[in-house]
C-alpha cells in the first residue's frame, strides 16, 4: 500500500476521482448536493462559529513572532539563492493570486451587505452612519490582516520544508516531515494532499465560472452587447483557457510575473482615476478610519461572536468567508512558497501581509466609499439592488462605475481588470495543482498544466450551463474546515523542525568558533 501511494501518478488519479465524484454529483443532483453541503456548513457554524474568527488572528500573531523573532533571518533556500522576481513583480503576483477577482466582486458589495444585514447594521436599529462604519470595519477584517496571515503561513510552512529542507512542494509534506516520528503523520499527509488537489480543481473551476459571469456583464455594460449565452460562454472560456494555460506553462517569472505586474498596474490606475473624479476628501477620511479598522479593530472583531443575536449573518458571511480562505491554502500555499525562493521569513511576512492590506484599505475606501455615498446622498439604486438581489451582489461594482462620470474610460479598464484578475488567479491555481498532482516538483510539468486547464475549464462550463455553481462553491467551503486543522498541524511541524535546525546551527557555529579560537591559540604558542 505504501509503495502504491508513493507512485508518481497516485495523487493525480486520486484527485481525478475526488474531483469527478463531486462534479458528477453537482450535475446529476445540483439541488441535493448544494442542500447537503450547505447544511453541513450550517451545522459547523451553529456549533463552532466562535472558533473560526479568532483562528486567523492566532496565525497573524504566529507570523509576527516568526518575522521579528530569532527565525526571521532564515532564508527560503541556500545562502546564495536570489529571488527569481523583482520585488514589485513578486508583491503584485502575491496579491493578485491571493485575492483575485474577489475584490471586484465584493469591493462594493460586502460593506453594504454588512451595513444591511449584520447585528451592527441598520437591521439591528444602528444609526446609518455607524452601520456604514461597522460594515467597512468587518470588510477590513475579512479581507485584511487575518486573510493574508492565513495565506502567508500556508506559504511559509511549505517553503521552509521545500527550500530549507529539500522536501516536496506538497500541502501534506510539513505534516509528514514535521511529525516524522509519529505513526499517524504519513497517512494524514496523504489525505491532505488528495483533498488539496481535489479542492484546488473545484475551487478554481468555480472561480473561472464566476469570472465568466463578470466578463459577460462587463461586456454588456461597456458595449451593450449581450454575450450571456451558451455560445458566448464557450467563446469566453476558450479565450481565457489559452490565456491562463499559456501563462502557466511559461517560466514563472515570465508568465505569472508579467500578469502580476500588469494586474497591479491596471487596478491602481482604475483606483486612482475613481479617486480623482469623486469626493477625494470623503475617501481620505475613510482611508484614515480604515487604517484604524484594519490594525486596531482586529482583536475586537475576532472575539465578537454575537451570542444573543440571530446567527444567520455571522455564519453565512464572516465565518463562511474565513473558511473559504482556508480552502485556498493548499494551492496558494504552494504558489507563495514557489515564488518566494531567496527571501527571508521576515521579508515574506512583512511584505505579503502589510502591502496587500494597505492596498485593500485604499480599494475599499474608494469603491465602497462611493457605494455608501450613493446610499446616503444619491438615488440609492445600489443599496436597493443589493438588498433585492442577494445572489448577484457582485454586479454592484460596475453599478458604482456607471453612476460616476467617465464610464467610457472606467468601463473598458474594468473589463480589462476582470480578464487579468481571472487569468492571474487561475494561472497560479493551475501551477499549484499541477505541482501537487505531479508529486511535488519545484516546477509544474507542462503536460500536467494543460491537462488540468482542460479539466477545470470543462467543470467551469458544466457549472455555467447547469447552474451548479453554488454546489461547487459549497465543496470548496466545506473542504476549508479540515484545512484549518491541516494548517495548524503544518505550523506545529515547522516549529518542531525549526527548533531542531536552529539548535544544530547554533551548535555548528559554536564548534566553528571554537576551532577558530583553538587555531588562533596554537598560532600564538608557536
From TrEMBL:
The annotated topology with respect to the bilayer is: Multi-pass membrane protein
What are the transmembrane regions? 10-28, 48-68, 88-109, 140-163, 184-213, 233-252, 264-287, 317-336, 348-368, 413-437, 449-469, 475-495
Alphabetized UniProt keyword annotations: Cell membrane, Membrane, Transmembrane, Transmembrane helix, Transport
Where found in the cell? Cell membrane
Keyword Membrane, does the record have it? Answer: yes
A GO MF term: transmembrane transporter activity
GO cellular component entries = plasma membrane
Any keyword Nucleotide-binding?
A: no
The family database entries (PANTHER family) matched by this protein are listed as: HIGH-AFFINITY CHOLINE TRANSPORT PROTEIN, HIGH-AFFINITY CHOLINE TRANSPORT PROTEIN-RELATED
Provide the family line: Belongs to the BCCT transporter (TC 2.A.15) family.
Protein known as: Glycine betaine/carnitine/choline transport protein
What is the scientific name of the source organism? Lentilactobacillus parakefiri
